[in-house]
Amino acid sequence: MSDGYAMAAITAVLRARINARLVANDVASVVGAFSVTSTPPDLISGVANADPTQLNLFLHQVTPNVTYRNADQPTRSAGGGLTTRPALVLDLHYLMTAYGAQALFAEVLMGHAALLLHEEPVLSRRHIRDALQAPVPAVIAASGIDAQAELIRISPEAISSEEMSRMWSALDAQYRLSMAYKVSVAFIESESAPGSALPVTRRLIRVLPTLGAHLTGVSAQGGDGQALTMADTVVIDGTSLATDGLSLLFGTVTHMPTAAQITPLRIVLPLADLATPPLPGLVPLSAVIAPDLGDPPVPHQALRSNTVALPLAATFTHVVTPDSERDVDGVTYRTGDLTLTTTPAIGARQRVSLSLNQLGSARPRHYSLDAPRDNGVTAPAETTTQIVFRYTDVAAGDYLLRLRVDGVDSPLGFDGAGNFDSPQVTI
Questions:
Q1: Within 13 A of 237's CA, how many CA atoms are on the CB side?
Q2: Identical fold at 214-312 and 315-426?
Q3: Domain topology for 315-426
Q4: Upper half-sphere CA count for residue 330 (Cβ side, 13 Å)
Q5: Which tens digit of pLDDT belongs to each residue from 35-49?
Q6: If we measure between CA atoms, which residue out of 248, 290, 294, 291 comes closest to residue 271?
Q7: Which of 137, 147, 223, 353 is at a distance of 20 to 30 A from 346, taking alpha carbons?
Q8: CA dihedral for 31, 32, 35, 39, sign (positive or negative)
C-alpha cells in the first residue's frame, strides 16, 4: 500500500519515463532543447508569443476505482472502533499535451511519448524505483507505490471533441495537440492504526460433511390431494436430510425430528408432534442445520435449506344459532350466527372466509361469509380458536361447509359413492 504521496509519485514516474525515452531517442537533435512538465496548461507560456518546446502531463481528474470501490470490508466495529485500515483506491486521468516552438516539433514529442506508453503500458516495480531518484523529494520517493498489491497500468482514453472543448474552456488556455490517459490503480492506505484483538489461544475447528439440506416437496402420507391438517402425517422429500443438528422450521415454529423419522431423502413426521401448531394457510417450511460448536458446545445455525410451501388447513366444529326467519315466494330464509371452533388457532391478520354449498337441491345455492374484523380477536391476544360468522337471509337447507384461511380450504369428506358429504350444517 502507498500513502498520501502516491499521486505525486505516479506523476513523477510518468514524467521521468517519458523524459528518459525522449533523451534515449535523441529527440533534442531535431527539436532542440525541450522539457517534460506537469504544469496546469493555463500556466504554460513561451517567449514573444511563441510556444515552448515542451511536453506537459497534467492530472486533470481523479475518480474512485469502480472495481475496488465495494471490495473493502467494513472498517469499524459496532462500537465505532477501527478494525481494519480503510483503503482509498483511485484512477488518475491525465491530459498529455505537446507544444512546439516550430512546426512539427509538437508532433515529434507526442509521437515518441505515445509510443512509449503504448509499448510499456505497465509500470514495473523496477521502473518505479529507477524513476524516483533525486531530484524527486525523498517523501515522494518513499510513497510506496512500488510495493502496492496491484501494478500500475496506463491506458488511453477516448475523449470526444465536445468534451475536449469543454475541458480547454475550463482551463482557460489555448488548445494544443493532446491525448488523454487513465492510470489505474493508486492504492492509498490510511495511516490510522486499527485495534488488535488478543491472539487465539485454542482453535476449535469442525468440518461439516455436507453442502446443506435441499427440500423438493411436501405432502400428506396417504393423502387425497387436499390440504394437510394437524391430524395428518407429513412427508418431506429432499436431499442430505440425515444431517447432524437438522431441525425443521414451520413458519416461526421450530421442531427437531427424531432419528427414527429421518432418512437421507425423506422425513416422515406427524404434525401432532409439533409442540406449537403453526398458523393455518401456506406455511413456509425449511430445514435448518445447527450443529453443536464451540467449547462448551452450543447449537450454531450454519446452513438453511430452500423453502417449500406446506398447505395447512384449519379443521373445525360448528354451532348454529338462528335468531330470525322470513318466507319469500315459498322459500324460507333464515338469519343468525354460525360459530366455528378451529384447530389450529387463527391469527388476527389472516384472511378468513366461510363457504356454504347447498346439498339436495335441483338448483343449489352458494353463500360466502366473511369473518368479522380481525377475525374477532381482541388485543392483546393475537390468535383465536373461535370465529362467529353472521349469516343473513340464507335459504333453509343442508349445506357443505368450507373454511378458507389465507387461500387454503378445509378438507371435505366423501360418502361411499365418492360424493362430498361433510362437514354439513343445517340452516
A1: 6
A2: yes
A3: Immunoglobulin-like (2.60.40)
A4: 0
A5: 999 999 999 887 767
A6: 248
A7: 223
A8: negative
Q: Position 156: which residue type? A: P
Strand, helix or coil for residue 140? helix
d(CA 412, CA 419): 10
- Taken as a whole, the chain contains a residue count of 427
| Burial class (CB within 10 angstroms; exposed 0-12, middle 13-18, buried 19+) of 280 | buried
Amino acid at 142: A
CATH topology of domain 214-312: Immunoglobulin-like (2.60.40)
Summarised one tens digit per residue, pLDDT across range 139-175 is 998 888 988 888 999 999 999 999 999 999 999 998 9
Alpha-carbon distance values, 312 to 143, 195, 218, 257, 288 (Å): 67, 52, 11, 19, 20
| DSSP secondary structure code for residue 240 in this structure | S
The structural domains of the chain, with segments of one domain joined by +, span 6-189, 214-312, 315-426
Instruction: Give the Cα separation of 167 and 63 in Å (integer).
Output: 16
Strand-pair partners of 36? 55
Compute CA 404 distance to the chain's CA centroid, rounded to the nearest angstrom: 35
Among 64-68, 247-251, 369-373, name the one with the lowest average pLDDT. 64-68
Residues with Cβ within 8 Å of 234's Cβ and at least 6 positions away in sequence, in order, are 218, 219, 220, 221, 228, 268, 269, 270, 271, 310
Nearest CA among 254, 258, 289 for reference residue 275: 254
The strand order across the sheet containing 233-239 reads 214-220, 233-239, 266-270, 262-263
The whole-model pTM stands at: 0.54
The grid coordinates listed for 311 are 398447505
